[in-house]
Fold this sequence. Notes:
By secondary structure, the protein is of the alpha+beta class. It has 3 helices and 5 strands. The chain has helices at residues 10-20, 51-56, 63-77; strands at residues 26-29, 35-40, 43-49, 81-85, 91-95. Residues 1-5 have low confidence and may be disordered.
Amino acid sequence: MTTHEEDVDPVRIQIILDCLEQISDDISVGEHLTLFVVHQDGHSWQLRFNRDFLENVQPVEDLQPYIDTTVIPSLLANPDRRLEVGPHGEISVFSKSPTA
Length: 100
């Protein structure tokens, strides 16, 4: 079990980065490896994954198709916003946090 002070499984983080690199090569990873900031063509997004969601995707190979078919289209449909993937894979869209 992972505590909130520990980082998420690096294999899962690499899957996320590989998927996001399809739309941008300017990606930064934030706190505890659950926050990603993506820049593309003058737009930017904050993408936060719920830690429970990331830890519970089984098998880990299911993460890539979920990001490709659900997360990336949601990002592209909501430029300059903050998206959060909840514990059950639901996506919420918000105004971006001014601090990131």
